[in-house]
Amino acid sequence: MLKIIPLPDAAEPYRAPDLVWDGLAGDLAINRLDHVEAPGDLRAEQGLATQVLICLMTDRRVEPHELPDGVANRGWIGDSFDLGPDETPLGSRLWLLRRSALLEGIETIAETYASEALQPLINQGAVTRAVANATVNRVANRLDLSVSLYGRDGAQVFATKFEILWRQIDGVDRPLAG
């Protein structure tokens, strides 16, 4: 399970390194060599974006009855037997839609899967609300997914659009790279 632990105020709080997503795999982000504070070091400036990537782009293990015929289960094997009472499996079920046709209602399924995957951010108190909106462009054969997160004061603290979800999952585009 993804666990976000608020840190007490400190002069230099630990910040987890950022991840970048190349559409197929995530990797640790590195600061540019001309970075003022930490040239060439691990970048830690997009904590919430990194958590969203982990939540949405990590394949969640599913029940056998949810698998399409001939498809092997994915996700972390530990999620199938090592969940505590207040824990949820890591990741999303968006991978189940990878080979789906863009049929009527797929937007609702994608929104459900994304909201389910982002719920740990709410449970841990990182945000108070997560909104996922999916739209289909059947002519372009694509599903777009917009994610917005909101803080305790109701203000939007994060927003991004995964513009071509199917192509991003297949490794073509590079959201949040850099």
Q: Topology, please?
A:
Elements lengths: L18 E3 L4 E3 L18 H11 L48 H18 L5 E9 L4 E9 L5 E7 L2 H5 L9
Antiparallel strand pairs: 1-2, 3-4, 4-5
Helix pairs in contact: 1-2
Q: What does this molecule look like?
A:
The structure is a single chain. Helix content is 19%, strand content 17%. With 178 residues, the chain is α+β, with helices and mostly antiparallel strands. It has a domain at 19-60 and 88-164: Nuclear Transport Factor 2, Chain: A, CATH 3.10.450. α1 (47-57) packs across α2 (106-123). Pfam families: GP46. This is Phage gp46-like protein. InterPro entries: Phage_Mu_Gp46 (IPR010877).
Largest sheet: 3 strands, antiparallel
**The first-level CATH class name of the domain at 19-60 and 88-164:** Alpha Beta
Helix content: 10-25%
CATH topology of the domain at 19-60 and 88-164: Nuclear Transport Factor 2, Chain: A
Gyration radius (Cα, Å) is: 17 Å
Tell the overall outline. globular
Mean pLDDT reading: 75
Number of strands: 5
Protein name: Phage gp46-like protein
InterPro entries: Phage_Mu_Gp46
Organism: Mycoplana azooxidifex
Features of this protein?
single chain, 178 residues, alpha+beta, Nuclear Transport Factor 2, Chain: A, three-stranded antiparallel sheet, two-stranded antiparallel ribbon, 17% strand, globular, disordered C terminus, Phage_Mu_Gp46, Phage gp46-like protein
